[in-house]
Design brief:
Layout (H helix, E strand, L loop, with lengths): L3 E7 L3 H12 L4 E4 L15 E3 H10 L3 H7 L6 E6 L2 E7 L14 E3 L2 H15 L3 E2 L4 E6 L4 E5 L4 E9 L6 H5 L4 E2 L7 E7 L9 E8 L5 E8 L2 E7 L6 H5 L1 H7 L12 E7 L4 E3 L9 E3 L5 E2 L7 H21 L3 H33 L4 H13 L5 H8 L16
């Protein structure tokens, strides 16, 4: 196996797989280096939602992939929001069809394990080279390229590196880049359960402001293919372990959904979310680009993590392709700068959006508490207030400014 390629992708999560697919399909030689062994369980939050824009980007990166993901996910036909047990908003989308062979849906919901499986299959079909079980330890970044050294002592040479190695990114650290931004004090609990296929719940996304059975804690139910995700926002005085232990989950979960799901728990975790963005998405020599959680961490409201990581990877590849084709150093650096700047602007926009959503649902703002309570009391008179309550926990629906030039 040759250890000299044009681009090294560090990390084999969905963002790294996106980068590898895009590189391979543009004829740019690459390798994906992953610290963990293949199929090793991953810690941390897992995505369950792909926006239409993301599906379209993945379809462009690998023909058929967007439609495969759509077919293997679900679309909820109903979304509803309740305030202290009273329904304040409901929307019925009618018949939703993810089977249309000619049109991608406006979203699809499936677990990241499944997302990665289909993306990996596309990578294998495209001939992407993988190296597993090799943590990257060192980057020597020079004027002409990068030497990447793994824990085993293997050394790889490349013109560029795309760091897709997550929140504790070695690539980010080695490139001298740092996260900037706050960390929230609110604790959120995330639980995944498998669906009872013989007697399933209605496929609905449901958000509860101040659920009456949960001491007025916020609760979100999101269906995905084969299961449900339940998000619980803890109160400031809550003892985390009372809610996060399996015994604790089995005690509170039957208060918010059918008790049978207490025996169908597959995953539990708690978070205090970061709201951070790297100070730059590229290094001083313009040989490294960051993507996904190596570049930014957001609270999950509005599904901004994976759905911003995919364009991070694709824009990084576009920038690298332009840099490889540049006829002088200035144009080469400008191409990398353009990609890094565009995605950092998008990351800052996404951080602002998730911060807005977080402020909307937090219980520590008397002003926002009053606005929510007033809106809920006036919904029957002013229906659009229900929509405001429904959309608030997810932040703005429109995207960051379009800046991409055609590379």
């Amino acid at each position: 196996m040759g250890k000299n390629v044009e681009v090294i992708v560090v990390g084999s999560g969905p963002v790294g797989l996106t980068a590898a697919l895009t590189l391979q399909n543009r004829g740019i030689s690459c390798v994906v280096i992953e610290a963990e062994e293949k199929d090793a369980p991953r810690a941390g939050s897992r995505a369950i939602y792909l926006h239409s824009a993301t599906l379209k980007l993945l379809e462009e990166a690998s023909k058929g992939l967007g439609f495969t993901l759509a077919r293997n996910g679900i679309i909820w036909p109903v979304k509803r929001t309740l305030y202290r047990g009273k329904e304040v908003y409901v929307r019925h989308y009618g018949v939703t069809d993810t089977q249309d062979p000619n049109r991608l849906p406006h979203f699809t919901s499936l677990h990241q394990h499944e997302i990665e499986k289909h993306m990996y299959e596309a990578c294998v079909k495209a001939g992407v080279q993988f190296v597993y079980g090799q943590p990257v330890e060192k980057l020597d970044i020079g004027e002409d390229g990068v030497k990447v050294t793994t824990a085993s002592g293997d050394v790889w040479d490349a013109k560029y590196v795309i760091g897709c190695d997550g929140a504790r990114s070695v690539v980010r650290q080695e490139a001298g880049l740092t996260f900037e931004g706050p960390r929230t004090h609110d604790t959120f609990l995330v639980v995944d359960v498998t669906e009872d296929e013989e007697n399933p719940l209605p496929v609905e996304r449901v958000f509860h402001y101040q659920h009456p059975a949960m001491g007025h804690r916020n609760v979100l139910h999101v269906p995905f293919k084969g299961g449900w995700r339940i998000d619980l926002q803890l109160l400031a005085d809550d003892k985390e372990e009372d809610f996060t232990s399996i015994e604790g989950v089995k005690e509170w979960l039957p208060k918010v959904m059918d008790p049978k799901y207490a025996e169908r728990i597959t995953w539990v975790s708690s978070y205090r979310f970061h709201q951070v963005v790297a100070d730059s998405f590229t290094d001083e020599k313009r040989r490294v680009l960051l993507a996904g959680e190596a570049a930014h961490l957001f609270a999950p409201f509005g599904a901004r993590g994976l759905n911003s990581g995919v364009p991070d990877a694709i824009i990084a590849v576009r920038g690298i392709q332009a840099a490889l084709q540049a006829d002088n150093e200035e144009r080469r650096r400008d191409a990398i700068d353009a990609a890094a700047t565009e995605r950092r602007i998008a990351a800052l926009w996404n951080r602002d959006g998730s911060t807005t959503a977080l402020h909307h649902i937090q219980g520590d703002s008397p002003e926002m508490n009053m606005k929510r309570e007033l809106a809920a009391s006036l919904v029957s008179i002013v229906p659009r207030l229900g929509r405001w309550l429904d959309e608030g926990p997810y932040g703005p629906k429109f995207g960051p400014p379009e800046l991409t030039t055609k590379y």
